[in-house]
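Appendix C: a fully annotated inverse folding record. The material below is reproduced so that readers can follow the format used throughout the book. The structure is listed first as tokens, followed by the designed sequence.
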């Protein structure tokens, strides 16, 4: 998020300096090499490094020699209680505050990370003021939540649909608006706590839309209907909107699950029970079990069966596996005695690292296949979990690798006509058995998949 944000500022003509406490990441970025997979990011990074609009500082002192507006883009991981872990945020804030001591002129510190409502005004702001020892007139504090979706981060950062800022005074507002002047987007100016609540409310509502579509998909399966034409018509209502209504195995990624749990926990602290958040999380957990049900329905008892899982990232377009629905799916298959093979075009290594040591990983490990043919060899069934474009181009040669030519398509990605030509039988999530689906209907207009959170 920090890298995409900084590069977007640079691409709009601002002079940007980045800093990261991880020296490996810092060195990679300084060389113009993106440290993770994100469409368009590597090209943008190389261009802005060459233009010298974007550079990397070796330490905070070097950063402060050139920066007047400082964005804090630090992790806020989830604790077992559902609350966010503020320790990384506090450490970074404290280090920046100490580096600001004795500096001349006005500096604006902007909290870009996702923190629960009240954190900046109640925790981070006081910490900054106390440790920096700077008078209020020389230190502005603001909140500027990000709304970037993995897989489309570059596009979202360069062309934001809205810019939300939370400020306490007019000077901070003017400075932050000046930073965003090159961007054409509607501004929403609130208090810091109000801006923090906007971020959480947005993700909670999007997660609710995803879970709603997933529940309706179970009805369409029982009624002999297809979920996509139903949701296409529902989403045509401008009061509802078409995005985030594509049913699937559930939402994942670094935002929705973490933010919902944190909002529920924060609401509880304030004496409010957030039932919509609780139910959304419950539906998402149940959807992983429903995916397993579909596999059993397709091939019967799983013990001794060879099952191939295609797509391990939480969605196509990223190598991020955080909260990927592939984890409960693979864990469930292993627990029921299946022999599991897994494949992903970019996230295989990340999934392998994350799988080790998981409490639900079970006594056996899946086989990590480098190629699709290897993954499909002698498979009793394949399960498509993340809809990478390569899987949509299913070939007869892939089918011939399988023991039984059955695909459980959790994303409705493979065109039924292509599947038929390849000799492949499809069991699709959200589609009643025997339903004939025209390829033009599959995945509502604009491919309205849940883009995983901002």
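Designed amino acids, in order:
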């Amino acid at each position: 998020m920090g890298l995409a944000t900084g590069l977007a500022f640079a691409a709009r003509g601002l002079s940007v300096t980045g800093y990261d406490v991880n020296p490996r990441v810092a060195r990679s970025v300084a060389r113009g090499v993106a440290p993770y997979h994100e469409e368009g990011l590597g090209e943008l990074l190389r261009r802005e490094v060459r233009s010298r609009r974007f550079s990397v500082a070796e330490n905070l002192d070097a950063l402060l020699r050139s920066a007047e507006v400082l964005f804090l883009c630090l992790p806020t991981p989830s604790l077992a209680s559902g609350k966010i872990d503020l320790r990384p945020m506090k450490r970074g804030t404290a280090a920046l505050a100490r580096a600001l001591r004795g500096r001349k002129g006005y500096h604006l510190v902007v909290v870009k990370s996702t923190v629960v409502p009240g954190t900046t005004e109640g925790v981070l702001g006081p910490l900054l003021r106390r440790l920096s020892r700077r008078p209020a007139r020389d230190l502005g504090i603001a909140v500027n939540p990000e709304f970037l979706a993995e897989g489309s981060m570059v596009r979202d950062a360069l062309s934001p649909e809205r810019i939300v800022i939370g400020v306490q005074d007019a000077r901070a507002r003017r400075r932050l608006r000046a930073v965003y002047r090159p961007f054409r987007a509607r501004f929403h100016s609130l208090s810091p706590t109000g801006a923090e609540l906007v971020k959480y409310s947005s993700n909670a509502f999007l997660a609710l839309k995803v879970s709603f579509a997933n529940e309706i998909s179970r009805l369409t399966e029982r009624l002999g209907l297809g979920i996509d034409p139903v949701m296409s018509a529902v989403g045509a209502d401008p009061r509802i909107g078409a995005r985030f209504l594509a049913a699937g195995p559930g939402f994942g990624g670094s935002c929705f699950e973490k933010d919902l749990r944190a909002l529920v926990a924060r609401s509880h602290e304030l004496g409010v029970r957030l039932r919509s958040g609780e139910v959304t999380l419950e539906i998402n957990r149940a959807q992983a079990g429903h995916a397993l049900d579909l596999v059993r329905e397709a091939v019967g008892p799983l013990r001794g069966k060879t099952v191939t899982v295609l797509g391990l990232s939480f969605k196509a377009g990223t190598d991020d596996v955080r909260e990927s629905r592939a984890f409960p799916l693979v864990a469930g298959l292993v627990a029921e005695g299946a022999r599991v093979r897994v494949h992903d075009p970019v996230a295989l290594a990340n999934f392998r690292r994350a799988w080790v040591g998981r409490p639900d990983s079970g006594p056996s490990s899946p086989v990590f296949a480098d190629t699709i043919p290897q993954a499909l060899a002698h498979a009793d069934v394949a399960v498509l979990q993340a809809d990478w474009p390569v899987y949509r181009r299913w070939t007869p040669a892939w089918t011939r690798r399988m023991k039984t030519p059955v695909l459980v398509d959790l994303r409705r990605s493979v065109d039924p006509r292509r599947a038929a030509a390849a000799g492949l039988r499809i069991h699709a999530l959200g589609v009643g058995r025997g339903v004939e689906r025209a390829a033009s209907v599959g995945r509502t207009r604009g491919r309205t998949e849940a883009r995983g959170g901002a």
